[in-house]
Amino acid sequence: MSMEIDxxxxxxFNETLSGSQKAPELTRKLKDLHEELRNLEQExxxxxxxxxxxxxxxxxxxxxHSNGTVxxxxxxCIADIFxxxxxxxxxxxxxxxxxxxxxxxxxxxxxxRNNTYEYRFYLLESLSTVKSVIILGDLDxxxxxxxxxxxxxxxxxxxxxxxxxNNVKIGMTEILIQIIEEVGIFSQDCVEVILEQFxxxxxxxxxxxxxxxxxxxxxxxxxxQRRVCQYFSDVIMAISRSDSSEEEIEELKRSHELIRKxxxxxxxxxxxxxxxxxxxxxxxEDTIREVAIETIGQMLAxxxxxxxEQYPSLWKAWLDRRHDKNLRLRLRWLDLVEEVxxxxxxxxxxxxxxxxxxxxxxxxxxxxxxxKLVGEMQSSIIDIKKIDxxxxxxxxxxxxxxxxxxxxxxxxAIGLIYNNFFDQLNDRVAMDRVGWIPTTLxxxxxxxxxxxxxxxxxxxxxxxxxxxxxxxxxVDRLVAVVGSxxxxxxxxxxxxxxxxxxxxxxxxxxxxxxxxNITNNMDEHEKMKNEEYMKYLAAYFPEKARTYNxxxxxxxxxxxxxxxxxxxxxxxxxDYKTVIKAKTTFLEELNETDGAIAEIFTAILNxxxxxxxxxxxxxALMKLTQTSRGRKTVSNQKAVVAQVILKQxxxxxxxxxxxxxxxxxxxxxxxxxxxxVDESLTILASICKSSVKKAKFDRDVVGRLVDFINxxxxxxxxHASIIxxxxxxxxxxxxxxxxxxxxxxxxxxxxxxIILTCLAQFALYCPESLDSxxxxxxxxxxxxxxNGPSPECxxxxxxxxxxxxxxxxxxxxxxxxxxxxxxxxxxCEKLPGNSQQYSEIIFPILWSLLxxxxxxxxxxxxxxxxxxxxxxxxxxxxxxxxxxxxFGSELTIAKFEKLSLICQDNCFHVRLEFVESIMxxxxxxxxxxxxxxxxxxxxxxxxxxxxxxxxxxSHKRLQVQGAEKTLVVVLTHFIHLLAHHPDxxxxxxxxxxxxxxxxxxxxxxxxxxxISILYHAAQRIKLSSxxxxxxLSKNSYVVSDLVCLLIKTKCKESNWPLNALGExxxxxxxxxxxxxxxxxQNETLKTTFLPAPFMDKYEELHNQKLGDKRVRGLSVGSTKxxxx
Length: 1124
Description:
Blueprint: E1 3-5, E2 8-10, H1 23-39, H2 51-57, H3 60-63, H4 68-85, H5 93-107, H6 117-130, H7 141-159, H8 166-183, H9 188-200, H10 208-219, H11 221-241, H12 246-265, H13 274-280, H14 286-300, H15 307-310, H16 312-320, H17 327-343, H18 348-358, H19 364-379, H20 389-397, H21 404-421, H22 428-435, H23 437-442, H24 450-464, H25 471-484, H26 487-518, H27 524-538, H28 544-557, H29 560-569, H30 576-593, H31 595-608, H32 618-625, H33 634-652, H34 661-669, H35 674-690, H36 699-711, H37 714-725, H38 731-743, H39 752-765, H40 774-786, H41 809-829, H42 836-849, H43 854-859, H44 864-881, H45 893-900, H46 908-923, H47 931-935, H48 944-958, H49 964-979, H50 988-1005, H51 1011-1020, E3 1024-1026, H52 1033-1054, E4 1072-1074, H53 1079-1086, H54 1092-1115
Antiparallel strand pairs: 1-2, 3-4
C-alpha cells in the first residue's frame, strides 16, 4: 500500500529482493511489488522511493535467474519502473543496455498460453504504451543497434507462431515502429528482416510476419523507402562490380524477386528503386539486363499495377528492350509482354506497335515467336472490332518468310484468329478485320515452296475447315470461306483441291504396297520399284528423306486393321464421319507405335483426306442451290457459291456423286428451275467424262439430253453432248444426231456455234462416232469457216484482244471450228490405230493459224482479236498434241522454234496464256525440257509481271543441284533458237538486243557450280555444224561466242571460277553434228565470230562499268581522312 504525502505517493514495498532468495519467496515478493507498482501513477509518484527496488531488480542474479517466472516478474516490475520514471531514465547506460536486452529475451519467449503468458503480454503492452524503447536512442550506436536487431529478429520469429494471439503481434509491431520512427537506429539487418517477409509470403497472406512487415512499411514509408533503396542499391552495385559468380547471380535474382513482391504489396516503397531498375536494363552485362527485364515485366503484369502511369519513362525503356542485342532477352521480353497485355488491355495498342517491328526481327526464332504471340493475343480479344488489322496483315506477310518455322507460326496465328472469330463474321466490320485471312492463306500456294504448302494444308484442316460432323454447319462454313475468297485465291483453292485429289490417287499405289507387304507377296525387283515409288511420294514434302523413311518404316508396323483405317482416311467415296474416325484412330494408334512416323502421316493425311470436299456435303450444297432468282440476297449469293463448289466436286471427285445420280436425272428431266437444270447437267457431264465406264440412262433422260442439244443454250448443249458421248447403248441415237448436226453445219445456220461445240465433244470422247462425217466436217471448217470471210473492223477500234464472248459470232465460230479439229485429234490420240490420214490434214491447218497476225488483220481491215484467239487456240493445241507418242514426230526442230516464237506474240493475252501453259506442263513433266529455252525469249517482255513469273519459274526449276544435264539441253536449244530467230543479224545493234536474251538466261539459271558446264556446252557448239540449215552454222557460232563472252564477264563480276570439265558434253544430234576433227575444228574454235565493232563497243562499256564501280566503291568507303 503506497503512502500519499502532500499529493505525492511513495512506494511502501520495503522487502529486500535478492537473487539468492529461494524462487517461491522471490516470486511472492515480485508479485507484491508488481501489484503495488502497477497501481501507482506517474504524475504523483515520488521517484526517489523507487530507487532501492529499481537497483535491486537489475541485479545479475535476478536478471539471470534460473526460474522463468522470477525473470518475467522482474521484467514487468522494471517496465513499471520505466513507466513511473518517464520521461526520465531510471538507469545508467550500462544497466539500460542490460535491461533492454533482458526485455527482448523475455518477449521472445511467447508461446502457448501458460502461467507466464499474461505477464509477458503485460510487459509488451507496457513497453508499447509507454514507448520505453525510445530510451534506446540514448545508448551508444553499437549497443543500441545490437539490441534493436535482436528485437526485430525475435519479434518476427514470435509472430510466425500461430499460437500467439494477434494482440501480441500488434504490440510487437507498434514497438518496432516506435524504434524506426523515434529511435532512428535502423540497420540494414533490420531492413533485410522486413523484406524477407515479402519474399516468403504472398501479398494476400494473413501470416503474422507478413502482416507485421506490411504494417511497419505502411506506417514508416519515408524511412523504409530510403533504407529499401539503399539495400537494393548495395546488392546491385556489389554484383555489377564483381565477376558475377553463380552465387552472386542467384542473390541478384532473389533481390529482384523481392522487389517484385514488395511492389505488388506496397509499390510506394520502391519510389527510389525503380529508376535503378531502369538503369539496369541498359548495362552491358546480359544477366543483369535479363533480371531487370523480367522483374519489370512481372511488375507490369500485376493487374493492380499502375507503373505505366507513374513511370512512363520506365515503361518506354522496357518496351525498347524488344531491340535488345541478346536474342534470349528479346524472347523473354516477348513472353512477358503477353502477360502484360492480358492484364492490361488498355496497353494492347502500344504493345501491338512494338510487335510489328519484331515481325521483321533479324532472328528467325524471334519472328516465329512474335507470330505465335500475335495469334494468341489477338484471338483472346473479345470484341472483334478491336482487332488490329495492320498487325494481322504484317503477321500474314510472314507466311512468305524465308524460314519454315516463321511461315508455320504465321499461318497458324492468323488461322487461329480466323477460327476464333468465325462466328462473328456477320457484318462488314468483322469481315474487314479477319475475313481476308482465307484469301491470304490460299495465296501461299503461289510461293511454290513445299514447306509452305505443308503448313498451308495443316492450317486449312485445323483452323479454316476444322473438324465438324454436322454436315449443315460444315457446308455453311465452306460456303462462307469460298465466298470470301478473291479471284486469285479462288484459283489457288481450286488448285489445292486438285492437288489433293491427285495425291490421293497417288496414295492408292502406296496402299497396294502396304497390302502386298503384309502378305509378303513381293520379290526383290518389286521391292526396289516400291522404294522408288515411295521416294516419288516423299518428293511432295519438304523433308523428303524423313518422309521416305517414315513411309518405309510404316511397312514394318502396318497391319490389315490400320491399313484399312489408312484406306478409309483417303477414300473419296467414304462419308465425312467415316473419314474423320478412320483418320483419328489411325493417327492415335500410329502415335503409340512411333510418334515420329505419326507426325509425317499427319502431313500426308492433311494432303490426302477428303474432308474439305466430301460426299456428305453434297445434299446440303444442293439444298443451298435451290433458291429463287431475283435481286441479290445472302441466300442467292450462297447458292452461287454452292454451285461453284458442286462443280468443283464434279470435276475433282465425280465419284462422290454416284449416290446422287438419280437426283441429278430428276434435276434434268422434271425441274423448271433453270439454275438447277444447268447445275445438274454440269455435274452429270463431269461425272461422265471422268468415269472409266460409260454411263447408261433411260430413254427419258436421253431424249431430254437430245432436246438440250437441239434447243438448249450453248452450255446446256455442250454438257448434254458430253453426257451422250459417254453413254452406252445409244449408237443409233448419236449417229442420227451427229448426221443431223453435220447436215446443218452451214454458215447461215443460226445455231452453228452450238453445233460446232457439240460435235467437238463427240469428237473428243467418241471420235469413232464421227467416222462417216469427219471428212465433210474438216472440209467445212477449213474451206468455209477458217478461210471464209471475217467481219470488217474500224482500224481505230480494233484491239489485239477481246474476250471470246465479245467476239462477233462468225469469229467465235472460226475458233469453235478449230477446236473441233483439235478435239478430233485428241480423241484419236487415245484410240488404237493410225490417224495419220487426218493428222496430215489437220496439223497443217493448225500451223497455218500461227501465221495469222494482228498486224495483217489490221492492215486488211479485219478483226485483230479473231486472229489472236486462233493463234492461241492453235498454239496451245500444238503444245500438247505434239508431246503425245502418236503425234510427237510432228514437232520438228523448225516447228518447235516456230511455236516458241508465240512467247513473243504481239498480243499480251496470247503470250501470257501460252507461257503459263508451258510452265504448267513443264512443272508436271508433260513437256520436253527444251521448252525452257522458249521461256527465255521473254527477255524483252514489256509486262514486268510475266517476265518475273518466267524468271522465278526457271530459277526454281533449273538452278538446283542435279539439273546440269537439263541445262545443257536447254542452252543448246536456246542457242539454236536464237541463231534461227527471224530478227537475228550480226549488226552491233542487233547483237546488243540478243545479248539481253543471254543475260536473262544467265540471270535465271547460272550459279557458281553450273557456270563451267554452261561455258563448255556453248564452246562445244563451235565444234559442230547446224543440222537443220547447215548454212546458218555461223549464226550459232556468233551466239556461242556471245554466250561465252557474257559468261566470262559474269564470272569476273561475281568472282566465280571457270573450271575445266572432266567429262565430254554431247549435243542434241538433231541440232548439231560434230565437225570433222582436225584443222576444221581448230580453225572454227580459234576464230572469233563476233564482229570487231561490237567487241570494241562491248569492251568500252564494260571498262566504263568497272570504272563506275571503283568510283562508287571509293564514295561509300571509309570517311576517315588518310594520314599524311
